[in-house]
Amino acid sequence: MNQRLLLERLVRDGVATRAELADRTGMSRPTAGKILDELLKARVVENVVIHAANTQAEARLGRPGQPLRLQSSTPRFALVHVGVNHTDVQWAPVAGAADEKPHHRFDTPKSAATWFAKLRALVHSKAPKGLWGAVVSLPGVVNEDEGRCLFSPNLSWANDVNWLQDCREVFGKPVCVVQEIRALALGHMRDAPGERDFLLVDSSEGVGAAVVLAGQLFAGASAVVGEVGHTPVVGHTRLCGCGARGCLETLLGDDGLLMSWKAANTGSKSLAHDLSAVTPPDWLLETLTALAQGIASALNLFGMSNVILCGTLATLSAPAIIHLERGIREGALPARFGEVRVQTTTQKRFHGLSATAVNRLLELSPAA
After folding, report:
1. What global pTM score does this model have?
2. Pairing state of beta strands 207-213 and 148-151?
3. Measured between alpha carbons, how far is 145 from 175 in angstroms, rounded to an integer?
4. Which residues contact 273 (CB under 8 A, 6 or more apart)?
5. pLDDT digits over 261-312, tens only?
6. At 103, which helix (H) or strand (E)?
7. Can you tell me whether residue 185 is helix, strand or coil?
8. Can you tell me the distance from the alpha carbon of 200 to that of 182, in angstroms, rounded to the nearest whole number?
9. CA nearest to 355, candidates 75, 139, 97
10. Rounded to an integer, what distance in angstroms lies between the CA atom of residue 203 and that of residue 207?
């Protein structure tokens, strides 16, 4: 538990001395020092080289303790995102992904057998030596402890896979799984460690959300958490992959947006043009109003006032975001007592998978 506290602190701070890590975790300095020595020996953390140019000034002030950081050079984890259309893979050191560009991408096939054949071939030919484990993000309703996708409306074959067992056979190393939107929330926490309470909403192939309270992902009593995309929208009847009709996802997911744009027949150049238009079209404003109602309900339930938008939502024009923000404030009770903030950000998926590896795989890895 103490090891995890120190690692999580390093994930947030990036660089810190032993004394700083002990103080920030509330741990005794001898205890923190012993654990950090073990992590150095296991090559989980590394010393930060202090440039000679700084030595004289540091000597005058009293040389500080040796700074430490998570190991940042040798790939240790395979980060795998299983998307509806594409599967992305990155090899990352303990310090995490340097950017969000996958090292490898292949089209997600229509069957588990073909997907595993593609992954096996990729690992056999491209995986670096010395990996300690793999993290796999999955769409839909995911039981992360059991490593099973309980229900994926847009990738049905994922429901029949024992992801922990089958992926371990491919990598020959410990494996853990994380639900894809929860991975995005973890990535945002790693990128913006000062934000401790927020609702992250992502719209891409589907629509989902994750709740972070006091710096921790909200888990809930079951795996069905954050499924804002399956909120019914009154007056809409499109069939959703979940079997219901009129789900928000049928309007706001990538396919839903394309259908709405075509149905509106406004004569605009493209869907992207409408999403970024200075004067958003009526069909888009109606969709954003429905989203605002769903977000406001979540804020009322959790007593939150900070909303993070990513995916396709991050590409909306400023007037479209203002319309969405206005709708959220009108329905969110926390707005009566303070400010409700709506921000956009890029998807930090690999950052989130890296954080998951630190939190859940290092204690499983014989090397660490």
Report:
1. 0.89
2. unpaired
3. 11
4. none
5. 999 987 888 999 999 999 999 999 999 999 999 999 999 999 999 999 999 9
6. none
7. helix
8. 9
9. 97
10. 4
